[in-house]
Amino acid sequence: MTEPIRVLLVDDQSLIRIGFRMMLEAEGDIEVVGEAGDGAVAVRQAAALSPDVVLMDVRMPGMDGIAATETIVREHPGIRVLVLTTFDLDEYAFGAIRAGASGFLLKDAQRAELVAAVRAVHRGDAVLAPRATRAFLDQLSAQPAPASSGPDPTTALTEREREVFLAIAQGLTNAEIADQLFLSESTVKTHVGRVLAKLDARDRIEAVIIAHRCGLV
């Protein structure tokens, strides 16, 4: 049997943490290893407990979830952060994504959605609906692309991988990429994995940010 997914719950409301704990611990492959009520405690808990996934609220007193996410991702690159937000396309959620979160989830998500999201970020996928991805792209496109520094990371991509990369950068799902490039979804999934590996991208969201930095979005 594989090791359970270790989860750290971060929210300033204890009732919300209790609710998420109950839903997650009902699953045999997920273990809640700790809780935190603010960002500073979350940073310390992440260092002490080495969770696989952090469920992170963004609006908290003291150190908020954006600052905590940035610190955790920087100091512990192997830890995935899944942001909890009250409103879809929330500015705070996008701030946390820019800080390194692998996606966001609404606090009123059903149990199946919560569990699927935790499993998804644990295996390296991003949890972000295509609509949210495109809204994030709109935010990025409103900002000037930073001046290029260092070698172009996309030169290692094959022609097909570059096509897939550009499709990811447009916020397309695997199914949409498959339709656009006349490939099977399983083939697209393989290409996506290779693209992320070659770009040294944590997930699809980071790939979108890389595309922006390269002036491709």
Key phrases:
alpha/beta, 5-stranded parallel β-sheet, 5 strands, globular
Q: What does this molecule look like?
A:
With about 220 residues, this protein is α/β, with parallel strands linked by helices. About 50% of the residues lie in helices and about 10% in strands. The protein has helices spanning about 15-25, 40-50, 65-75, 90-100, 110-120, 130-140, 160-170, 175-180, 185-200, 205-215, and strands at about 5-10, 30-35, 55, 80-85, 105. A five-stranded parallel beta sheet has the order 2-1-3-4-5, sandwiched between helices. The N and C termini lie far apart (about 40 Å). The mean pLDDT is about 85.
Strand order of the largest sheet: 2-1-3-4-5
Mean pLDDT: 86
Distance between the termini: 42 Å
Taking all Cα atoms into account, the compactness measure Rg is 17 Å
Number of helices: 10
The major pleated sheet works out as: 5 strands, parallel
Order of helices and strands: EHEHEHEHEHHHHHH
* Number of β-strand runs: 5
Structural class: alpha/beta
Outline:
The protein is of the alpha/beta class. The chain has helices at 14-25, 39-49, 65-75, 91-98, 111-122, 130-141, 159-169, 174-181, 185-199, 204-213; strands spanning 5-10, 30-36, 53-57, 80-85, 104-106.
Mind sketching the topology for me?
Layout: E1 5-10, H1 14-25, E2 30-36, H2 39-49, E3 53-57, H3 65-75, E4 80-85, H4 91-98, E5 104-106, H5 111-122, H6 130-141, H7 159-169, H8 174-181, H9 185-199, H10 204-213
Parallel strand pairs: 1-2, 1-3, 3-4, 4-5
Helix pairs in contact: 2-3, 3-4, 6-10, 7-9, 7-10, 8-9
